[in-house]
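EI: anyone free to look at a 171-residue chain?
SC: sure, send it
EI:
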Amino acid sequence: MASASEQIPSPPTYRFRPTKRELVEFYLLPRARGQDPFPGVIFEDDAAGSTLPWDLFERHGVGSEDEAYFIVRGSEAKKPGARQDRGCDGGVGTWKMQSSLEKCLRVRGKRIKIHVSNLNLHMGKGKNSGSVGWVMHEYTIAAPPCPSPVKICHIAFSGHGRKRMRVPDGQ
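SC: here you go
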């Protein structure tokens, strides 16, 4: 699969950094309605929330990047408020919920309620576990109801955490 930079030409210093409102208005709402006005800008990967980030980035050709956006459809687009902690690659790592909130945005005159979840990637077991510096922000539409469940995952390496490593040893 071609990376976003190969599909849509952009200047070498361009960074894709949409605001929450832009993510909802131009990417999340159209995808929930079955449209894709900007193909190739956000990767589609239904396993984005259950895959180790470095494997996910390599799969989409952005292995050297520190952040990327993914569209998740179907079974992973859980109802807002559902338990969000989930294992990665057979329990090697776990995305753990840090915070969750609902916000209301006005998009083109309509009130849209979005659910935002923040998760950290933890590796290891017991006292040897801890955050390795990867974060995921998930955006879903809570209201009005959408015909197709979908979420956007913004996954980034923050460098914060007890065991911060872009790719932990042995991975």
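EI: The chain has a mean pLDDT of 79.
SC: 👍
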